[in-house]
Amino acid sequence: MSRYDRPSSPGKIRPNQIITSYGPGAIFQTENDSVIIMGLHTWYKKQLKPIHHPVLEGTTGKKGFFMPEQFDREEVIPCKSFPLWGVCSDKFCRRLQKHEDVPDSDSEGFHCIEKKCNHAPLIHSRFITMCDRGHVSEFPWARWAHQKEDEFRNSESGHCGNPKLFFKSTGNDPGISGYFVMCDNCKSRAFVSNALSTSPHSGLLSLEGENYQLQCEGTRPWLDRDTEDIESCIKQPYGVQTRATSVFFPVISSAIFVKKWVSEAQRIIRQHTDTLADNLESGLTPSILAETMIFFKQLTESEPEKWSHKNITKEIERWSYARTKKYQKQTEREIKDDEFGDLESTSEYDDEEFAISEIDIPDLHKHITKLKKVSRLTEVKVLRKFTRGQAPDPFSKDKKNQNYCELVPKAKTEEEKKWWNWLPGVENRGEGIFFILDEEKLRKFDKNPDVLKRFSPIKTSFEQWTLEREWEIEEDFKPRYVLLHTLAHLLIRELSTSSGYNSASIRERIYHSDRTNGILLFTASASSDGSLGGLVRQGNEKEFSSLLKKAIKSSRRCSRDPLCMEDDPATKLEAGTQPITRINGSACYACALLPETSCENSNRLLDRQFVSNETFGFFRDLQ
Hints:
Blueprint: E1 2-3, H1 15-20, E2 27-29, E3 34-37, E4 48-51, H2 54-60, E5 65-68, E6 78-81, E7 85-88, E8 96-98, E9 122-124, E10 127-130, E11 136-138, H3 141-145, E12 165-169, E13 179-183, E14 189-191, E15 204-205, E16 211-212, E17 219-220, E18 229-230, E19 238-241, E20 249-256, H4 264-271, H5 273-281, H6 286-292, H7 294-302, H8 309-326, H9 332-345, E21 348-350, E22 355-359, E23 368-387, H10 414-419, E24 423-437, H11 439-447, H12 449-468, H13 479-495, E25 507-512, E26 517-525, H14 534-537, H15 541-554, H16 569-575, H17 609-612
Parallel strand pairs: 1-6, 5-24
Antiparallel strand pairs: 2-3, 3-6, 4-5, 7-8, 7-9, 10-11, 10-19, 12-13, 13-14, 15-16, 17-18, 20-23, 21-22, 22-23, 23-24, 24-26, 25-26
């Protein structure tokens, strides 16, 4: 990172963190400061690695993605101090004050203005105000200390003309409720705990003394150009800690490179995406480009039988169709279905970006029809937008009027619109195991009356919960999804003890529709840590058979049994409990739940009884 408009770095961020935790608009805590990551329009684009994936370019409508890399200069991602309030670190001082935009030296940070503490270092204030539309601003410390209704208020005038604030502790409570902010001039004070209420700022006084209803300032400091990008907003702001997870919820899309996207022709197309796209927009046809572009001529000359003019033309047409038409209106599940088709049909393939081989498993054919080792896998993840306050709708595809926060300001010119037509992304390399359950057996499972009786209240509860959050469901979940999802979790827990990866490093990718099913368990990272080989070794016949049987055996017991196993969604639905408490069946952190980094659905729609129940479990006869 680098200071906005200043060539100095307050800290470092890993590429994957840009997508998951610290993208534009997020607040990052450095050793000596708190900074907000600036919008994409300020990034040093020349120091970013271009990434292309036709599927993601089609779904996002962007021309490409860029990934931060380590260069001689560290100043790749601009940031600026936010919030600007800080507390003196000296325990006898504790002056609450605003500091400058940038420190004299990043290694030294900011310092107190008081002499009595020898200008001790400042600790950044951990409070800001935020509204549901994503606007953030400085916490109104002076107004908070001078509240209208406060039993500790001593000021007769009703206001303070020269507030001198200190951040103090009662000494009785180590938690946030034991801290208060006090004005040394008028002795007014207010406890900090109330600041985290959803509507804490009503009834405040301005510094002039009149009644004041705090309104959202509409500020989006990460989009700063000449001044802060300000929107009119009627939402009520509320206090939040800068380290709260609700400050930044990323909206992420991902895709893997399957066989049709990793050929020599497709690799050349990705390397020259901008050139080819511009020429197609100008009216040239794929056939003309295949014949005239020198990089295609070199490919044809090296392998004339494989890469004829006709074959290269087909590759350009496929790539162009994917970016501009095929994936624009598809849902996430439809995109996965297309990806599943390639994984299912490819028995053997060996490429630097994607390598897969099929393994025979005769003793498991009753339950599993195909098992494949994916010894090399390349995943691309991109950050589309983000939300604050409430997690984004995973089913929306941006169709609803969500409170999404943009990564760039609204373009004022065609040049800006063209220049900002990209998203931050990361390219991860790794390995995985892919397998498919017996489809005929799975269809019978979907129609089993006992399964449907167990599944119906789970689905109803999930739909009620999503409606409460004003989400738009685009996927019609069936019993097979709960089975596949739970099985993936059980296998990840077993793999964490045998593959050399911890459970947080292994992720799932569930493929499900009326006639397809599949599970891809994989690990991927921007470094070599994602391809150490431990996961693929568990994909051999003997190892996978043992792994699956251990997972099924573990699903039959839990340290919280009988409470966990007897957890009945139908009973809880009849009792009228909150929907969030009944979107799972028999599943808890002792048996089936995983770290958030591993699960694609935030530990929802899980029930280990679908796996091994003695009456209707899919694997009930597997010993």
